[in-house]
Amino acid sequence: MKNYKLFLLLLIISASFVLWTVNYGEISGIPDTHAHTMLGVFFTDFIREGAFIDNIHNIMNYIWNYYAHYNNISLLHWPHFFPI
């Protein structure tokens, strides 16, 4: 029971710290953060819009069209499962 109370106290302290600093964000300060963020947005849009269901030609058009609008995505630059 004592470990449960300590864990709960640690969880409350860490959650309050995270909620206190949630508006600071990680978008500024590190140069690569924008690329990581846009890569995550790309995969979210790719899955949400169901672009992976089309044929390979439409998938490539979707990727190139997305890259034309947001050229800060780096699909092949980072490790394959990094945005996940």
Write up this protein.
It is built from three helices and no strands. The mean pLDDT is 79. It has 84 residues and is mostly helical.
How are the SSEs ordered, and which strands pair?
Blueprint: H1 2-20, H2 33-48, H3 56-69
Radius of gyration: 19 Å
Structural class: mainly alpha
Q: How far is the N terminus from the C terminus?
A: 36 Å
What is the β-strand count?
A: 0
Regions with pLDDT < 50 over 5+ consecutive residues?
none
The succession of helices and strands, N to C, reads HHH
Give the helix proportion (percent range): 55-70%
The number of helical elements comes to 3
Shape descriptor reads elongated
* Largest pleated sheet: none
Percent of residues in β-strands: under 5%
Outline:
This protein has 84 residues and is mainly α. The protein contains three helices and no strands.
Notable features of this structure?
mainly alpha, 84 residues, single chain, 3 helices
